Amino acid sequence: MWLSGQATGSTAPPVLAGTLDVRFTDIDVPGYGPVRTRTYNGSVPGPTLRVRGGHQLRLTQVNGLPPNAPSSGGGGHNTPHHANSFNLHTHGLHVSPSGDADNVLREFAPRTAEEAAAGVAEPQYVTSIQVPHGHPAGTYWYHPHLHGSTAEQIVGGMAGVIVVEGDVDEVPEIQAAADIVVCINELKLKDGRVPAFTSGGWTAGVPSTFTVNGTVNPTLRLRPGEVQRWRLVAATGFTALSLSLAGGDGAPTVHQIAQDGITFPRPVALDRVELAMGNRADVLVRAGVPGTYELRAPGLPGPLMTVEVAGDPVVPPMALPAVLPAGRPFLDERDITDPDADREVILHADAGVFAGAFPNAFRMLGTGATPAADPGADLTRDPAYGLFDPSFTNHTLRLGTVERWNVRTDESLPAHGHPFHLHTNPILLTHRNGVRLDPPVWHDTIGLTGGTPGDRVTFLVRYDDFTGRTIAHCHQLHHEDLGMMQSVEYVE
Ligand SMILES: [Cu+2]
Known about the structure:
Layout (H helix, E strand, L loop, with lengths): L3 E3 L8 E15 L3 E8 L8 E4 L3 E8 L25 E3 L21 H5 L6 E7 L7 E6 L6 H5 L5 E6 L6 H4 L2 E11 L13 H4 L2 E5 L6 E4 L4 E9 L5 E6 L6 E7 L2 E9 L2 E3 L4 E7 L4 E6 L8 E5 L33 E8 L10 E6 L28 E4 L3 E8 L10 E3 L4 E6 L2 E9 L1 E2 L9 E7 L5 E7 L2 H5 L3 E7 L1
Pfam family, one: Cu-oxidase
Protein name: Copper oxidase
GO molecular function: copper ion binding; oxidoreductase activity
């Protein structure tokens, strides 16, 4: 086991400690070839971390990357910078965003050139996270989240899965099913390298290579009548996935049992599993007719995974559960603390407005937008308006209150999806384009596709347990690095 539990006395919580070593590594990506990239512990994805509510997760991170280059790209903090600094985000976990916990405002810098030349040891940084008792059991993930370097690092494969174990695992039908992590990484590679992120055209100019658990199109086998539990993780930065199992009428059936780590009240049969960048879905896959099937998504160059149904049938066929231990009670509109104080967020891009290598402005407007540099000037060319400013608080959120947010995209370009992600507290999607979801669905990231300006979602959220400063942002990682991000502060 990579993580080791330590007995720390009768009253202290178990500590799960481990090291994440980050450096450039030569790896082989089966189906692609040799790659030199920044990794966690020499693999893509990084190790899967398994924890339970009440555990403390203590991760020592070594920064073995080369010194940062002097700032390139010609821009300020809303252009890519510090490609060899990172930090750690535990995406979806309801844990503290402060101190040395899930704090994305820290920077884990590498040695300077002078320190490296002098033989100073590689720096180490500790992330220490107390997972609350009763934390929803399910599938989460971790990745670096330093503003300015997030995209370049994640598309090199710096991402891994966190499994929170708990009640849902004890459901007999789920306990009987093989527990399989399906971590989908979207790598941006040219000649086996992630090109330095030096222009706005970078994302379009470099094709995406999709891997599942580090391999292009691996094969997974099920027996007829077998049920497997797949933990689907969209560790992608640019592409939303509309997943289906192709290959004919006999393809395995798919029932979703959780979204973004939070278990549903009952399984939901689906033809497609929609995953925006950052989303997870736990599904029960039941195989029937022998054959070869493919996990596919439109727009991808090939299948993500081949699924072979073969071998002796399981007799009798394995069952699906009828009900599940719902991961979190729903909120409803009667819980809203101040019905006249909805928050509005508009994801808005102004194309071709700046000089230099990054001409597009990816803004977050609406309630609490970052103020314009000059309110009297042309806002479409404003280098500040609606862009991330770490010194400005866009949203002050009071613990114990329930609020409604309306998030809309203005995006006319199909390639520009803008998934909305709030840190620290889960968000309950209640409406898409004014149509109520029944039942509503807990998320941490809600997809809004491009090409349909005016698309909007409504969610409810209660701010619980943790004070501190953190962020809300677009999970298209290029947009986020370019400033499509806001500061939120959770206060008593
Ligand atoms: Cu975006």
